[in-house]
Amino acid sequence: MDHQSLILEADRQKLEGNHEEAIKICNTILHHDLNCLEAFEELGDNYLSLREYSKAKKALERAISIDPNSANANYLLGFTHSALGNWKKSVGYLEMADELQANHPEILRCLGWSVFHFGQRKKGIILLERALTMSADDVLVMCDLAVCYMNDRNFARSINLLRHALAIDPQNQKAKECLETALFFEREYTKIKKTKES
To answer: Which of 67, 88, 106 is the last residue of a domain?
Structure first.
């Protein structure tokens, strides 16, 4: 099997949730070619799914050393740093990914989330709204945006987004939990406001 066929097979295994199998295939490729960019990207992506962030980081840093202009490697490394709470690094890699592959909803979603948590709340929300405009039925974007609005105490927008997300995907656990939280905070916040006013 040539490299390309093996990469496709690794990708297929990844999509089926067989991350250990996909990692094995990537390691087979790298055994023969230590400069295979796609193999390092796949490796990083699978380690991310397994929440093995230090291994993901190592593989993706290697991918970027092979090709600094890989939008995918920059996006995945930015995502890894976001998962680790390294917001500044995350924003740097995701901005690079956005430059290399402009207007990609998934890159914008992650960038918006990291920018918001890095302290630029307004800009983060604008980026997430842009991602939603491009991918109107993306439940992941809706949930992230709803959480940011919740943090900004815009409960009405947060609740609307989460109800819309659940209309699209009624079984989505994250959306259910976030909606419960948003409704709870809205009730508590209304109580506090009424107490202050009386």
So the answer is: 67
